[in-house]
Design brief:
globular, four-stranded parallel β-sheet, 12 helices, DHBP synthase, alpha/beta
């Protein structure tokens, strides 16, 4: 992985921030993460405070390679090596039994920890530079206020959490727009049978093909992971998710109410004049996912009082997109 001298200098500065217990927002192929030294309890506490995130909500530890797994997992599940060889670096998080060095401040008190090795060149370079002989890891939940829209650009992070001295983040390592656009797939390997805990770009079918066995749905006894709350990834503006052909009529029932719309082009053309913001929904899933959070940010910033989104296609490839939209449009409920 070749970086320019300017990029090397920015990565080195980010390492210095992490080593002194600060917070670095870093790019991945999925979303921007809010990073801190996973071994530093005080630094990790700053992540929870900056996001207003409940401390029982576990964090993912980001690593530079599969060689670091044994430093964070004990025992290392056999399937972890199989999946790391197939999908790392990439948008897959594996939940494994945690090693003794992994503190409860990372895991939310659970006996398991999520491990991930992202593929974004700058983010990956940061983890490599920070790791060192003790294979240090970087915690990195999405760099946004808890429950709100995830960031896929550096500006999203700055607009939400802000930079010090007025904001929460010491440094944003700007790596451009994220290419995958939705959070990593999470598979549980800490239980007797593999479980799909969160939908992402790596589908259930891809996982099952890689390991040669079924990947079941979670149970009430499955580990807690990010993104499981009913209301999550949510704009501040109320969201209605509906079939595409219903969108124009739903907006017409809101006369005088400025509305923002994400829908196919033919639907946008049928919307009444109070649809003040109209964003065309991409037809293909990779493009839809990559632009999803950027579009939600734009809809939320449009000055509308209601957001209407045309429900995307069904199917395994669209599972992550539908999951995020379902949670973004869910009724708001108190955090538990």
């Amino acid at each position: 992985m070749i970086l320019t001298k300017e990029e090397e200098a920015r990565v080195a500065r980010a390492v210095e921030v992490l080593e002194r217990g600060g917070l670095v927002a870093f790019p991945t192929e999925t979303v921007y993460g809010l990073g801190a030294d996973a071994d530093n309890e005080e630094a990790v506490g700053k992540v929870f405070a900056a996001k207003h995130r409940p401390t029982w909500h576990p964090l993912i530890v980001h690593l530079p390679s599969a060689e670091s797994i044994s430093w964070w997992a004990d025992p290392v599940p056999e399937l972890a090596g199989v999946l790391a060889e197939k999908f790392w670096p990439g948008p897959l998080t594996m939940v494994v039994p945690r090693a003794a060095r992994c503190g409860a401040w990372v895991t939310g008190g659970q006996a398991s920890v999520g491990l991930r090795c992202p593929s974004h060149r700058l983010g990956h370079a940061l983890f490599e530079a920070f790791s060192g002989p003790r294979h240090r890891g970087v915690v990195g939940p999405s760099a946004n206020s808890f429950g709100r829209i995830s960031p896929t650009t550096a500006q999203h992070v700055i607009d939400d959490l802000g930079l010090k001295p007025f904001g929460q983040v010491d440094m944003v390592l700007d790596g451009g727009a994220c290419t995958v656009g939705v959070e990593s797939t999470i598979i549980n390997l800490a239980s007797p049978e593999p479980e799909l805990l969160r939908f992402g770009a790596i589908t259930r079918e891809m996982l099952e093909e890689a390991i040669g066995r079924p990947v079941r749905n979670p149970t009430p006894k499955s580990p807690k992971v990010s993104g499981q709350l009913k209301s999550h990834y949510a704009p501040r503006t109320p969201v209605t998710l509906a079939d595409a052909d219903e969108i124009p009529e739903l907006i017409s029932k809101e006369p005088g109410t400025p509305c923002a719309v994400l829908a196919p082009r033919e639907v946008l053309g049928k919307c009444p004049s109070n649809a003040v913001c109209r964003i065309e929904a991409p037809e293909k899933e990779p493009e839809y996912a990559a632009s999803l959070y950027a579009n939600l940010h734009a809809l939320d910033a449009a000055g509308a009082e209601r957001i209407f989104i045309a429900r995307p296609p069904r199917g395994s490839a669209w599972a992550a997109v539908n999951d995020r939209l379902g949670r973004a449009s869910a009724p708001r409920s108190p955090l538990k």
